[in-house]
Each structure stands twice: as C-alpha cells, then as structure tokens.
Design a protein that fits this description.
Structural class: mainly alpha
Strand order of the largest sheet: 1-2
Order of helices and strands: HEEHH
Number of domains: 1
Oligomer: single chain
Helix content: 10-25%
Shape: globular
Radius of gyration: 15 Å
Length: 99
C-alpha cells in the first residue's frame, strides 16, 4: 500500500494535480495542458485516484471507477447532500439541479 498521508506541496514545487493545473491555466504550445496530458496520482500512478484530482485528497491506491473526490467519480446530483448514497433515482434536495 502506498503512503496515504496527505502531504502539502513543497515550497517552490509545481503541483501536478488536476485542480492545480486548471487553476494555473497551464498550457502546452497554446493548448490547455489537460487536453493532451493524463493526470495521475503521484503516489500510486492511478488516474482515478482522488489524489490525482486534488492533492488534498488521500491516495486510495486504486484505479476503481466511482471514487468520491475523483474527477472520474460517481455521477451524482448537483448539490447532493449525501453523495455517498446518491443514486440519481431519488428526488434531488435542490429541485431541477441534476448534473
């Protein structure tokens, strides 16, 4: 099992998580960096690991689909108050706010 501790980005280091890449607006040859690069977890190398999406998440050492916190997570209703239980079949708590 890989180290699951959440570690902050070291001073002067460039974070390579999806959220930081988007926030910085990184480009490569004029194209958005995310258009041509697959982001993976620095600990386990899995693209679906929640830590690949945000460096603040713990590494799950898993490439399973549907992990909460991952950009490849389950399809849940926008504003869902209980995403871990959301089936999108239940009535949304915010009417008309389905993703």
């Amino acid at each position: 099992m890989h180290d699951q501790a959440v570690r902050p980005i070291q001073a002067g280091g460039e974070c390579r998580c999806r959220n930081c890449i988007e926030a910085r607006g990184d480009t490569v040859n004029g194209w958005p960096r995310l258009a041509g690069e697959m982001v993976v977890c620095p600990s386990c190398g899995c693209k679906r690991c929640p830590r690949a999406t945000d460096h603040g998440h713990s590494c799950t050492d898993s490439n399973d689909a549907g992990q909460l916190g991952s950009v490849y997570g389950r399809d849940v209703c926008a504003g869902c108050e209980a995403p871990e239980k959301c089936t999108k079949e239940q009535k949304c708590s915010i009417e008309g706010q389905r993703t």
